[in-house]
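Reviewer 2 asked us to include a model.

Predict the structure of this chain.
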Amino acid sequence: MKSNIEIENSVNIQNICNIAEKAGIESEEVIPCGDYKAKISLDIIQRIKGRKNGKLILVTTINPTSEGEGKTTVTIGLAQALTKLGKKTMLGIREPSLGPIMGLKGGATGGGYSQVIPMTDINLHFTGDMHAITSANNLLSSLLDNHIHHGDEFHIDQRYIVFPRVLDISDRALRNVVVGLGGPFDGVPHEDSFSITPASEIMAILCLSENLIDLKERLSKIIVAYTYDNKPITSNDLKAVGAMSVLLKESIKPNLVQTIEGTPAFIHGGPFANIAHGTSSIISTKIGLNLADYFITEAGFGSELGAEKFFNIVCRTGNFKPDAVVMVVSIRALKHHGRGDDVISIKNGLKNLDKHLENITLFGVPIIVGINHFNSDKNEEIDIVEKYCESKNIPVALVDVWQQGGEGGIELAGKLINLIHNKKSKFRYLYDLEIPVKEKINIIAKKMYGADRVIYTIAAEKDIKLCSNQCLDKLPICVAKTQYSLSDDSNLLGRPKDFKITVNNIKFSAGAGFLVPMTGKITTMPGLPAKPASERMYIDNNGNIYGLD
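Predicted model (C-alpha cells):
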C-alpha cells in the first residue's frame, strides 16, 4: 500500500474553483488560497438562507486507543461513498493541530484513499487560522499584562488571572510559568499558564459564532481576571475586542478543500473534544446543510465527549437536529478494552461499545455501526461484532475506505440512507439549561459515563458559587476529561462500574457560552511522548516532505 503522500500525488487534484462549483458555491463567493484551497465569503449565507436543510450525519466512536480508530478516515470515505451513490454530499471536519501531528497521532486528514487534500498544507499551516487564533489570544494576554504594568486601574488580583496564553505545540514545560521577571521595565511578575491553541476559548468562540457580529459579541464576554472583590474583568474592559476581531476577520470564513475523489469538504476550526467541544464550525455546518443533500461531520473522541458536546452545546447553539449517527468501531479497540488479543477480549470489549450505543439512544438519534476494517482483522472477529449488533437490532456495515476509498463505504452509505428514510430522528437534549450546575454535571457523569457519583473539590465548590453569582449557571456544560476511558481515569477500560468523577475546578468560558469542569488529571497543555512523530519527519533537497502521514 502506498503512503498517504504517495496516494495524494497519484491523483489529479482539481482546481478549487471546480470543487466550489460542484458544491453550488458561486465564483464571487470563492477566495482562492492557491489552486487547491479557498476561503468562502460569508456573503453566501444570505444567498442560500431559507433553503431546506440536507440530512445531518454525525460520526463518532467508542473510547479510542492512542492511535485513534479511523473516525476521520471513515467520515471522509462515507462522504465519498454517498457521492458515488449519486447523492449531493459535503463533509465538515476540524483543522489539524500541530500538537498531535508532531506528537503521537501524526497527520489528521484521513488516510489511504479516504483523505482530504492537499494533505501537507492542511496538516501544517493551512490558511493561517491557527496562527490568527493564537495571535488574538495572546494579544489579549499581552493587553492584560500591559494594563497591570501601567498602573492597574481595575485593581486586578494577580493571583486570579484566569486567561492563559496559547501555543499550537504540545509543551508540558509551559503549563505553569512565571512572567514579568527582569525588573520594573519588564512587567509585573506573576504566575501564568499556557494552553494548546485548540483548547483556547477563542477557538471555541470562532467555531460557535454565527457571523462577525456574533463573533465580536462573544469576544467581548471573555473573562480574563478578577479584582480583589471578585469582580470579573473582561476583554471588553481592556478594549481588546476591536483588534482581536481584526485578527480573526479571515479566520471566521470557512475553508474549502476536496477529498481524494473530489467530494467538497469544509475544514474549519479545531477545538479538542477532551478539553473543548470538539467539532468544526457552526458556520461551515450551516452552509453545508443548505448546499448538500447529506452533510457528514465528526465529533472528537468517543460519544461521551465529542458527540455529547455536539448534541448539548453545538446543536443548541446552531439549532441543528441530527438525522443519524455513525458509530465507528475497530477490532483493535475492542481488544484493547477487553485487555487481550483474542476472541474473548473482543467479546469483553463489546461492553464499551454497548455503553456508547446506549449513549446515543439517550438523544433519540438513529444509529448505525461502521466496523473500520484493518488488514489484521479476521473474519471470525468481524462476525462477533456483526452478530452483536444484529442482536441489538442495530444496522452494521464493514467499512474499508482506507484501501478502497468511497467504494469501500458503499455498504455503510446504503444502509445509512435506508436508516434515515425508515427511522425518523427524535432528537432531544440530555439536560435542561435551567437546572443547577451540579445537577447538569451529575446527569452527564451518571448517564453518559456510568459513574455512580461526582466528587467536588473545595475549589470546584467555590467556582460553582462564583458562576451562580455572575449569572453564568444557566450555561451548558463542557466536561474536560480523558478520552481513553468512560471514567476520568485512563486506566479504567471497557465499561467500568462503581467509579467516581472528580471535578477539580470549573473554568468559565463566558464568551464561548459554556462551563468547563476539569476532571481527573486532564490538562489543557498536552506533553510530547518519548518518541514524538516529529522525529520521523524530514524534507529532501527537492522539497518533498516525508513522515507526515
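The chain has a mean pLDDT of 96. The two ends are 13 Å apart (CA to CA). We have added this to the supplementary material.
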